[in-house]
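S2.1 Query sequence (Homologous-pairing protein 2 homolog)
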Amino acid sequence: MSCAEAVFKYMVAQNRPYSATDVTMNLGNQHSKGAVQKALEQLAQQGRLLEKEYGKQKVYCALQSGGASKETLAKELQELDAAIASATQNLNAVNQQFNESEAVYKELSSGPTTEEAEAEVAALDARLQRLRTKLADLADNCIRVSPQDRQRISRQHETIMREYRKRKRICNEMVNEILEGYDKSKKTLLEELGVETDEDAGVKL
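Output structure tokens follow.
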């Protein structure tokens, strides 16, 4: 039996669409795929098979004698095309939903687990308790100053500052009098006298 006859006999017996790859495999690879493809094309040209292209792939089905006409089969194939297109659209929608769900899953998986989050919360809570204890200890050990003591210290500070400014003014007057008969700079004189200014000490009053 020739390849074409074997292919046609198989297509009539099965009475369903097949591609060249399907027919080659279903015939147990008794004929090469190239020979099967050529036989299918010849049978289609002879009007014994109906050929339909799906993208780069061709599908064939037998025209049964006494059965449906070529036009009826063509219409059925058109309906099949529409069903395939609808199924493809649904598949794309499902794939999109799957990709979105997968992205959410990856985002959730990258975060800490419940156990890890609970451990982190426990560690932070323990640290907070330690800080509260330390703060309480500092509050207990700090020296509390009464309003009366604050006023007394403030008055003492003001008295000391007034006395300091007074002595500073007198010192500056004495230095200026010495500078009248001194042939060097004021800075040199202060260094020789061992006098330290506010600027030298980094003090701002």
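Residues 11 and 62 are 6 Å apart (CA to CA). The radius of gyration is 51 Å.
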